[in-house]
Amino acid sequence: METFSKKEKEKQRQKKRKDKQEKREDRKANAQKGQPLDQMLAYVDENGNISSTPPDPRRKRQINEEDIQLGVAKQEDEAAPDVIRQGVVTFFNASKGYGFIKDLQSQDSIFVHINALIDPINEQDKVSFSITRTPKGPNAIDVRKAV
Predict the structure, then answer these.
(1) Dihedral, 112, 115, 116, 122 alpha carbons, nearest 10
(2) Is 132 helix (H, G, I), strand (E, B) or coil?
(3) Which of 88, 80, 83, 82 has the alpha carbon at shortest distance from 146?
(4) Long-range CB contacts (< 8 A, 24+ apart) of 83-87?
(5) Are strands 98-103 and 109-113 parallel, antiparallel or unpaired?
(6) Which domain holds residue 109?
């Protein structure tokens, strides 16, 4: 004995199967063999826009390879006038082992790791330190409490 809901579900399955078969036959009937190569090509103009017409060879420009910049610009090494700098610890988390020092000369915030400490430090301590450059930015090393 079939219930009403079973009959309805079976009708829906049959309808879905029939629709799928019709779509498949329609695709086969209307399928194109393919387009010629010149209709499939796309060109890029001098402004980087895609177009269907080939670029004008008279508008071609010569570009010097050395002028092309890839990635980040090279940073020039700054001569360190002060090997030892003075600063104030603005933040330090001893449990995580890192913090930041505000350089009194340049007012920059400089990262410091617990491995770079000579003396233990706390927030608001005045310290002296050296700076080393890393790919992520400047880091403080040889950090000592100022007397």
Answers:
(1) 60
(2) strand
(3) 88
(4) 83/130, 84/128, 84/129, 84/130, 85/128, 85/129, 85/130, 85/131, 86/126, 86/127, 86/128, 86/146, 87/126, 87/127, 87/128, 87/129, 87/140
(5) antiparallel
(6) 85-145
Q: How is residue 15 written in tokens?
A: 């309808």
- 28 in any annotated domain: no
CATH number of the domain to which 92 belongs: 2.40.50.140
Three-state SS at 138: strand
Q: Which residue's structure tokens are 């390879």?
A: 65
- How far apart (Å, rounded) are the C-alpha atoms in residues 118 and 130? 12
pLDDT along the chain (147 residues), means of 10: 86 96 88 71 86 84 85 62 83 94 92 93 93 91 89
Is 34 a domain residue? no
How many domains does the chain divide into? Answer: 1
8 Å CB contact between 137 and 113: no
Q: Round to whole Å and give the CA distance between 89 and 122.
A: 7
pTM: 0.45
